[in-house]
Amino acid sequence: xxxxxxxxxxxxxxxxxxxxxxxxxxxxxxxxxxxxxxxxxxxxxxxxxxxxxxxxxxxxxxxxxxxxxxxxxxxxxxxxxxxxxxxxxxxxxxxxxxxxxxxxxxxxxxxxxxxxxxxxxxxxxxxxxxxxxxxxxxxxxxxxxxxxxxxxxxxxxxxxxxxxxxxxxxxxxxxxxxx
Length: 179
Hints:
179 residues; mainly alpha
């Protein structure tokens, strides 16, 4: 007799509450319920929103047509879209995406302005450390260093770099060759 009582206790303690979908739809949650893995009883609002926007029968059809490994992603997408539609009935998640895109554009503009300020401040510091332009001697074509793509074209380069000590011997000053 004691043995039978323990068995009954075990079965009653392993009782599972129905999933959020079955609870909302007021039906019995069977072991093979298509909603149970994706709408746990702890998250009833998730199913309420999905049902309000898409309908239970449409969600059932969608989940039955999908392979099992894609269902969780589909339910998460449906829940996200449904929550966005509840918050913003006109635009839904497109409104959220547009808001985020505008925010990214605004932040990119701020970043561009900050970078421009940095460049302007850096360029304004360079000429003040150099002698006045009238005191600088012009660089002759033979002394001109190779073009540095990182150098700001508006900033004069008053001296050849240390790696450019003497001109190459194979350059001909007259422009022609002596063959």
